[in-house]
Amino acid sequence: ARTRGHYPAPIRALKLTASAPRTPLERGLNAEARALGELAATDVCKNLVSIFHLSEEAKKLGRPDSEPEPATVRRAGVIGGGVMGGGIAGLLADKGVDVRLRDLSQAALDDAVGEHRARVGRRLRRRRIEPHEARARIDRLEASTEAAGFARCDLVLEAVAEKLEVKQAVFREVARVLGPEAILATNTSSLSVTAIAAGLPNPERVVGMHFFNPVHAMPLVEIVRGEDTSDAVVAATARLAVKLGKTPVVVKDVAGFLVNRLLGPYLDEAVRLFEAGADPRQLEAAAKQFGMPMGPLELLDEVGFDIASHAGASLHAAYGERAATTGVLARMMEDGRLGKKNRRGFYDHPEVPEGTDPKKAPKKTLSTDLSRFVERDLARGQDFADQWIVDCLVLAMLNEAAHALEEDVVSGPRELDLATVFGMGFPPFRGGLLRYADTLGAGEVVARLNRIASAPDVLRRPGGAARFAPARSLVELAETNTPFHAPR
């Protein structure tokens, strides 16, 4: 059921296993060899192997051929004990780095340390680690409301409020006690790394290290190179990401960096389809059947409407009309809906008592009164083909990806594909966003974009058809019948 028909290997393996007890050995081995040969030649297998090779290449960012050897981070400081800061500090301690976590709130520190201890305890109970390893992981994390203890850090990462002046103030304070070689890393998801570094001594050591939530589960880390960030700092930060078990991708310091820049139009198109009368159940199902790990409305609930709205405003300011956003989320926030964080969003999220078995916990359900946030009656709805829904969602993302490549936000199509799979859950069996574009062909992509851009509903809305006006590079690829992943 979890393959949704997209991964043929598990089905073949199950059939072979089920038939094995009543199949002569030699015939069974021949059947397995035949199945393996057939599966290895499929596009799914080739795309999954491609993603594996891309992830292996990304790990080399932390060990470049050039000298000198990237610095090793043995002791780190994390400022901000919230969900992200606490998660990053716990991950560092898990992977052998001594960490000092600071927050002004003792309650936040207690929660972060408690979550770290609980995670270590779960691994110990499952016999994934030995008792001495568990004690070492717990001992490596120190927490304090005081500023002392950062002078010996090789790297200090801030995960405080997304306000430029707050982050600058934090780094000014830390820079006074750190050595000139120590790295200042920011986990910002929306602010300019260059702006954060402005006025600091040694701005070449300021770098973005953008983790995704949940920290322990999401495999991607965006290494954001500011205008002054040195190659040595980029390499050392990438090396740390690899040590933490993450896959680093180096991106340019632009609004939204890469992943959030691409997710913005995807999520906004989902809300616009909802606003236009699409059945939310069909919308969610179409995205998941395409291969996304969850529906876009469910993802908005997870992100939080306030955070999504803030990110959307930043993208609109940076990229103009093609990044214009709908006002639906603002109306939903006026109704007191923020998503999962207050249990009210597109879904109603029941309160789950602490200690409840996840398998027995009550499930979220689509809210029954969503129709009052749109102009059209959802009970009547509007007929949308599943393919139209998928095209609106995915091609909005794909077109923005083409713009990002034109601006050299990432080094090439391969790295962009890796970021979409590991950073947003784009279907691995499709090989990444641009590999999917190559499957369609640039000419077909441009034709579908033009078809959406000329739709009456799209022309009437704020921002009009700007989002779907094909990027210059896409048009050029279509004219020359060239794929994004042209043979090297």
Explain how this protein is built:
The protein is α/β, with parallel strands linked by helices. The protein has helices at 8-19, 25-40, 43-59, 83-94, 106-125, 131-139, 164-175, 193-197, 231-243, 259-275, 280-290, 296-303, 305-319, 328-334, 386-406, 413-424, 433-440, 442-453, 456-460, 472-480, and strands spanning 75-79, 98-102, 141-144, 155-158, 183-186, 206-211, 220-225, 247-252, 347-348, 365-366. The strands form two sheets. The protein has an eight-stranded mixed β-sheet with strand order 3-2-1-4-5-6-7-8, sandwiched between helices. Helix 11 (280-290) crosses helix 15 (386-406), helix 15 (386-406) crosses helix 18 and helix 18 packs across helix 20 (472-480).
